[in-house]
Amino acid sequence: MKYNYLIVGAGFTGAVIAREIAEKCNQPVLVIDRRNHISGNAFDHNDNSGILIHEYGPHIFHTNAPQVWNFLSKFTEWIPYEHRVLGQVDKKLIPIPFNFTSIETLFSTKEATIIKKHLLEEHGNNVKVPILNLMESKNRFVKELADYIYKNVFYNYTKKMWDLEPQELDPQVLSRVPIQIGYDDRYFNDKHQAMPKEGYTKMFQQILNHPNIEVKLSTQFKDVSNPNEFKKIIYTGPIDEFFDYRHGELPYRSIQFEFITHDTEYKQKVGTMNFPGFEFKHTRMTEFKHLTFQKNPKTTLCREYPEAYNSKKNLPYYPIPTQENKVLLQKYRAEAEKIKERIAFVGRLADYQYFNMDQAVARGLQFFQKEIL
Ligand SMILES: Cc1cc2nc3c(=O)[nH]c(=O)nc-3n(C[C@H](O)[C@H](O)[C@H](O)COP(=O)(O)OP(=O)(O)OC[C@H]3O[C@@H](n4cnc5c(N)ncnc54)[C@H](O)[C@@H]3O)c2cc1C
Asked: How many CA atoms lie within 13 A of 346 on its CB side?
């Protein structure tokens, strides 16, 4: 078959665009991926104990965008799931984001009552406030709390996660860390919070299941012998790799995932435990059965160890949001601009921007509307 479109990458971005072209333009699409599976970083599969695990770290779906929710709901049923996280701070377990229960656990009743009163007076009940705002507060009690959280939770976690001082990162990172005023202990507040009933990979199979779509796995873009044959190429891989790193490598943070199965039904109280302290090498530990509601006498957890990215050793996960890297990205964007009629760069690695899954879907849908339709 002759394909009009080549899509490089079978993750959220590539799969969504492929489906839209196949269905709404009735055009043949070839999707390739260098991995031996579809679903990109959202790939899940059963481990030896029959527990559905996420190969590239826990993926929890949440969105406020109706177009994203409606699009994905054509390909999967959902299990409602609200994620909860406990952090180990000062040898105590506290809800993350920091909320009133966290304050009551870490401070005396007298101190906690005063702090909660001042937070409520300043911000009202049941809202999430960025820690940056609280750190700038003129109220002594609010500022002291924010400084405590910054020092004991945010600073350590950030250092472990990025191996950078917080001020070296884009201020956006700090401005996104919230404190919950009130007792709501959900990690996300989005309207839709759910997991695909049969997993992400089954959902991707449905998205890509269309007579106009062919998928070739274990196939690199470099293996495509005749890229000029396609009317348009949509590339969702790393933008610096496409241009042979001619301006230098865009840095990423990588993660090593360690999967551990226990002969017990449950090991943790909640989906994820955070470990900001330097006494632990890992940052998070997630128990998959909380996310999937599977019944199984065993349980599998995943520990995450952040590490430097090295293109020969591990995978690029998180673009590092620094000023210097933004400047480097602009050089690649300028190269991409010169060939934009034939090749479009879209997605987490091509945009060099962290996207949640719903943002990757939204990016794919918007790209299709603006650039293809
Ligand atoms: C550890 C971790 C946890 C996360 N948790 C969450 C979460 O809880 N909730 C959430 O909403 N989001 C989460 N995300 C984000 C989510 O993974 C992304 O939103 C999503 O993967 C973006 O999809 P994408 O298609 O842009 O990129 P990807 O999923 O990376 O897909 C790109 C695909 O392109 C392929 N590719 C690249 N280059 C080439 C090439 N040259 N030739 C052929 N194929 C190529 C890759 O193999 C890959 O399969 C998490 C991300 C990470 C790293």
From this structure: 32
Are residues 165 and 74 located together in one domain of the fold?
A: no
First to last CA, the chain: 22
Same domain, 66 and 89: no
Q: Report yes or no on 296 lying in a domain.
A: no
7-19: string of b/e by CB count within 10 Å (b at 16+)? bbbbbbbbbbbbb
Name the residue range of residue 66's domain: 5-78+196-250+319-372
Write the burial class of residue 287 (CB in 10 Å: 0-12 exposed, 13-18 middle, 19+ buried). Answer: buried
Please tell me the distance from the alpha carbon of residue 326 to that of residue 339, in angstroms, as a whole number: 20
Name the residue of 236, 302, 309 to mutate for ligand 1: max ligand atoms within 8 A of Cβ: 236
Q: Over the stretch 262-275, which tens digit does the pLDDT of each residue have?
A: 999 999 999 999 99
User: Does one domain contain both 102 and 200?
Assistant: no
Q: What's the structural domain count of the chain? A: 2
Q: What's the rounded Cα separation, in Å, for the pair 208 and 325?
A: 34
The Å distance, Cα 202 to ligand 1 centre, comes to 16
**Substitution site in 7, 59, 223, 315 for ligand 1 pocket (most atoms within 8 Å of beta carbon):** 59
Is the bond preceding residue 97 a cis peptide, omega within 30 degrees?
Answer: yes
How long is the chain?
373
Among 130-134, 328-332, 352-356, whose mean pLDDT is lowest? 130-134
